[in-house]
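Hi all, long-time lurker, first post. I run a small reading group and we've been trying to get comfortable going from sequence to structure in the token notation. Rather than ask abstract questions, I figured I'd post a concrete chain and ask someone more experienced to write out its structure so we can walk through it together at our next meeting. Sequence below, copied exactly:
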Amino acid sequence: MSARVTTGRKSTPMMKRSSNCMLAFCAPTFILTGCATGLPDTATNAVQVADARQSDNAGDISNSEYVGRYNGNSFETAMGMELTADGKFQWGLSVGALDMRAEGTWNERDGTVLFTSDPVPVPPRLYWLGLENNAAGDTSAPMVKVMFAETGKPFGYADVMLTCGDGSQALEQIPEEGWSPEAGACRNAVSITVQQSMYDLRSDRFDLAEMGWQPGRTIRIAFEPNDIGVMDLTGMTGHLYEGILTVDGPLGREKFRKIRVVPPEE
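-- Answer (accepted) --
Happy to help. Here is the structure in token form:
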């Protein structure tokens, strides 16, 4: 899973931002707050760092120039990163309704910093759950609905791409109660693909004849969040020059300004 994290353009999310970050782990608050103020307060960190294995050469990097906090903010984007002396890192991004985060270990080799996500995030999934028979003549039953895999509760943040026999396609949001095309809009439904566009998540293409679907039956799609909102930054590398950390990898090329940490007053 690779989320859309392009930071140079305005975000136009299809879903409302949730105060409890229902779709994703919130971006690390202390990183984004620190980027906004320029004066991170380690005494009030809002995120408890998960235990991660230390880098084999953590002792060698404890005095590395890479150790510190970094501000990657740009227009309408809050992004930050922290590299600690014990060989761990955290990264967070918030833009529009999108929150992303990553954590793991870092290493320095020949002046280059290398990142490894730990634990490796498990991608989310959208998959075929089955067909639901409806009462004969029930025209109110939806063609497709999406639900959380674990609880069976409705999931209302997905879109469906419906392909019809005449080659036409329709892309529509699936509300919690489910979705059906307008009467007569698709006389011969051929296939569907379900997606969550913000996180660039797509199901397989389901051939409706092969899956046994017929009009009057409801397609049930399961959404399994797993580690949605968590990026795998393994393989990302970076170089620090005159206080600017330039990284290349899953984020593309991004620049972070090293933040001067002000010691807390005693």
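A couple of things your group might point at:
The chain has a mean pLDDT of 81.
The longest strand covers residues 98-109.
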